[in-house]
Amino acid sequence: MLLTQELSIYAIARELNRTTVEYIGGSKWDYQAVYAVLTSPKYAGCHVFGRTSSKLSTPTVSLPRSEWVLMPGAFEPIVDPATFSEAQRILHERTVNKSDEELLDSLRALLGSKGRLSLELIKNSAGVPSPSTYRHRFGSLRRAYELIQYGRPEQFGPIDLRRKTQALRGELIAKIVAMFPGRGVDCPARGRWKPRLRLRSGLMVSVLIGRSVWTWKNTMRWRIGPVPHEWGLRNSAGAAG
Q: Rounded to 5, what percent of the chain is helix, strand, coil?
């Protein structure tokens, strides 16, 4: 779909979900899941060692591609090396070779055609880089909006709340690790995974943040949104509010 139909990664994820192609644990395909498949050398028959490093109960860190150890021909390939290389070229040229101003121009063009901007619009628009590209290049999607002078401060409430929630989750895990030295390590957010706690036994603990909401009878309740792709992975979940 990337080569023959020139679909974006988000469009590929939508198509896979529409045609009920199963993903791990029955969860839905998303940007990170599709990107991982498109960029993993193992689908071209190449085994990869040394993608990450974790020493003596320290957090796991990702290593640059230049430090990976590759073993071609380790598996029966699903795609030939030439097809895999062409896919990498397409993904690379879509955003890496574009300047900051070209990325912002894509947002301006989308705003001009739609009259507004949103996360879903950016995801679903062909020719517009992914939201993760803007976050990587400018620090956040909000900052990209500000650079093209789009939006008012009050419109960024949901974005600010999400960032505060993410920060709170990371702080809570760090405190748990500090309280019980040697019992677990902090696994920072990576790709589609939120920050998690890995115990010495190998058990992964997913921390969820509960938000207070008012119900129709004017009483307070706590709302917790589980992460679908973490289901069935034998993770424990805690909540804080």
A: 45, 15, 40
